Amino acid sequence: DDDDDIPQLSSHTLAALQEFYLEQQQREGMKTSQGFNQYSIGSIEEDWQLSQFWYSDETASCLAKEAVVAAGEGGRIACVSAPSVYQKLKELDGKDFSVCILEYDRRFSVYGEEFIFYDYNQPLNLPENLLPHSFDIVIADPPYLSEECLQKTAETIKYLTKGKILLCTGAVMEEQAAKHLGVKMCKFIPKHLRNLANEFRCYVNYASGLD
């Protein structure tokens, strides 16, 4: 019988596979059901291979509201490698500010014209219509805890901002953050959906509501 040559999945593996597909279907069902918000945190799942770790809902809300206040009425906000803050800003549905997202992960292109592909290795490889010093505040979360990554991201931040900077990175980067961006650590401690091994902090170069 030729069927003997066909590898069979064990009942345990098959059950695990069915459970995985069921969970996937449920997730997709939630996304397509009425009331799903495409901007909610987690609507695009973290990709750890890209060093992605989403903020908790409370942290994203706090940072988004801080950015709106700092940008002022009619302000422009740029989120550099900080998609969960971008999503929360869109959820706020503010009419008195605009926002764009600079991100390496092309899944975020679903957000249309506000998405700008960004690779920190080419910090000034930006669209021509992204004018220098055209954002009231830049929120950035460099993907890696290295001085090289911070230094290159800092080039982008300094190109984009009119002055105000809100940086989120590890506590170990305090000295380099001050050196490359002139920012100081805030009292506010950002939290993530999953606990990170490294202590995370926020840094600003203006009088913020995060202290």
TrEMBL record:
UniProt-listed Pfam families: N6-adenineMlase
GO MF: nucleic acid binding; protein-lysine N-methyltransferase activity
InterPro entries the UniProt entry points to: DNA_methylase_N6_adenine_CS, Efm5/EEF1AKMT1, Mlase_EEF1AKMT1/ZCCHC4, SAM-dependent_MTases_sf
Signal peptide: none
Top-level taxon of the source organism: Eukaryota
GO biological process, alphabetically ordered: methylation
Matches recorded under SUPFAM superfamilies: S-adenosyl-L-methionine-dependent methyltransferases
Membrane-spanning ranges: none
Cell location: Cytoplasm
Keywords: Cytoplasm, Methyltransferase, Transferase
Ranges in a coiled coil: none
Catalytic activity line of the entry: L-lysyl-[protein] + 3 S-adenosyl-L-methionine = N(6),N(6),N(6)-trimethyl-L-lysyl-[protein] + 3 S-adenosyl-L-homocysteine + 3 H(+)
GO cellular component: cytoplasm
Protein name: EFMT1 methyltransferase
Organism: Oxyruncus cristatus
Gene name of the record: Eef1akmt1
